[in-house]
Amino acid sequence: MTEKIKLITPRLPRGFEDRSPGEIAAVDAMIGKIRQVYERYGFDPVETPLFEYTEALGKFLPDTDRPNAGVFSLQDDDEQWLSLRYDLTAPLARYFAENFEALPKPYRSYRAGYVFRNEKPGPGRFRQFMQFDADTVGAAGPEADAEMCMMMADVMDALGLAGKYVVRVNNRKVLDGVLEAAGVAGEEQKLTVLRAVDKLDKFGIEGVRLLLGAGRKDESGDFTRGAGLSEAQAGVVLDYVGGKPPADNAGIAELAAMQALFDAAGYGPDRIRIDPSVVRGLEYYTGPVFEIELTFKVQNEKGQDVVFGSVGGGGRYDGLVSRFRREPVPATGFSIGVSRLANALKLTGNLGAEEPAGPVVVLVMDRDRTASYQAMVAELRQAGIRAEMFLGSTKNFGKQLAYADKRNSPAVIIEGSQEREQGIVQVKDLVAGKQAAQAITDNAEWKAARPGQFEVKRQELVSAIQQLLGEQG
């Protein structure tokens, strides 16, 4: 009696996703447009590995023996902790510090790739997702920050989102000054206040007031604990959020300098806007912060109209590279969430969602003539045409045709013994065939009409396929 083998259930891990050829092609096209803008601004590509030494990732690491909260970690054979990168910025800081002498200053680079978060997955929250970053390391002035904002705007325009976005800009120095004036002490309380300010668009002034105080209960009854500020303290913060800037603040001067650059370059408030509610959650920002917000409405899971929201952002992080070097190294940059931006483009009709065209398929009508079919495939490939010979086991014509259809093939090539004797091949235009089939309701009529099918001389096969593909576009 043979032992029954237990089959493994095929399961996609939670927080990860598979991508189809159509999705890959659409995102690649989007990334290509972003890359063109980055390179037009003078940025060059650089690639860092998926793994870094865990200590290089810095701010995300917990104080535990096994650094595996927030990041995915392992130990190598030297007992060194390695972690999958959490973002693309910390690896850039390591790369710049390690290659400091060889790199130009300022150093302008862009990077695209997957990052990993060891966090609980949920709707729209993944453990692996793609980012596309651009950074300038070694430039201290607001000019570098302003350039990032203008480049973000140009990226949105290049993707067909003109009029559907705004780049919102603030400065952490302004926020720090407001917190100091309000008497907010302690890092935890500061972060709670900043998170409350960040919810202005979502909850409005009154919602922020509650989060600055004891806390806020939402419609479901869930309670979010507040920052515990007094009414007077909360008033200082709310005055700022409401548009009353603090006097004598270095951040205000930097924002004014950036605004002058936006005006000079022709970027109006419809594209780039100073906004006191922009916080950005990461703790390492030290100056200007900015984010791209898409302003069109979408429906949430409850069927309510909401603004699509942020698809990327960044800011100045002058302290990050200094973790590796004693001297201060200024830096600024931004990151685009590729998957979220692709979803936005899909909603606006600006993301090519069609499956890419498959290969021309040479059907195998006679098994003892495979060398002849392979010769056709080779000729097509040498002419730069995607092509393949059917390699399945079935001899059934209909099933081979169904295979080509599932491959999104533009055409199939048919050569039976009769065609071979006459020195011809049959070409079936699957695109025209589908269009013609929509007007034919009778199966017998469809078979008799053989829509989209024509014959060509064998020696003219390549030129006939080239012409067909050109007509299909």
From TrEMBL:
Q: Check the record and name the Gene3D superfamilies matching this protein.
A: Anticodon-binding domain (3.40.50.800), Bira Bifunctional Protein, Domain 2 (3.30.930.10)
Q: What is its main location?
A: cytoplasm
Matching entries from InterPro entries are given as: aa-tRNA-synth_II, aa-tRNA-synth_II/BPL/LPL, Anticodon-bd, Anticodon-bd_dom_sf, His-tRNA-ligase, HisRS-like_core, HisRS/HisZ
Domain called Aminoacyl-transfer RNA synthetases class-II family profile: residue spans: 34-356
Q: Name one GO molecular function term.
A: histidine-tRNA ligase activity
Q: For this protein, what reaction is catalysed? A: tRNA(His) + L-histidine + ATP = L-histidyl-tRNA(His) + AMP + diphosphate + H(+)
* Tree of life domain: Bacteria
Recite the UniProt keywords alphabetically.
Answer: Aminoacyl-tRNA synthetase, ATP-binding, Cytoplasm, Ligase, Nucleotide-binding, Protein biosynthesis
Record text on subunit structure and interactions: Homodimer.
According to UniProt, the name of this protein is Histidine--tRNA ligase
Q: Which gene underlies this protein?
A: hisS
